[in-house]
Amino acid sequence: MIDWDTAISTGVRFAKQGPQVSLADARAVVAELRGLTAVVQQPVREVTGLTSQGSVGPVAVVDRPGWIRANVGGFRVVLEPLAEKLAERGNAVPAAGSVIGTVGSRVTGAQAGLILAYLSSRVLGQYELFLPPGEGGGTPSANGLNGAAANGSSPGVGRLTLVAPNIVMVERDLGVDPHDFRRWVCLHEETHRVQFTSVPWLRGYVQGMMTEFLLASDLDPGAIIDRLRSAAGAVAGAVRGGDGESLVEAMQTPAQRALLDKLTAVMTLVEGHGDYVMDAVGPQVVPSVAEIREKFSQRRGSTGRMEQILRRILGIDLKMKQYEQGSQFVATVVAEAGMDGFNKVWTSPDTLPTRAEISNPREWLERVA
Question: What is the pTM assigned to this prediction?
Answer without folding.
Answer: 0.79
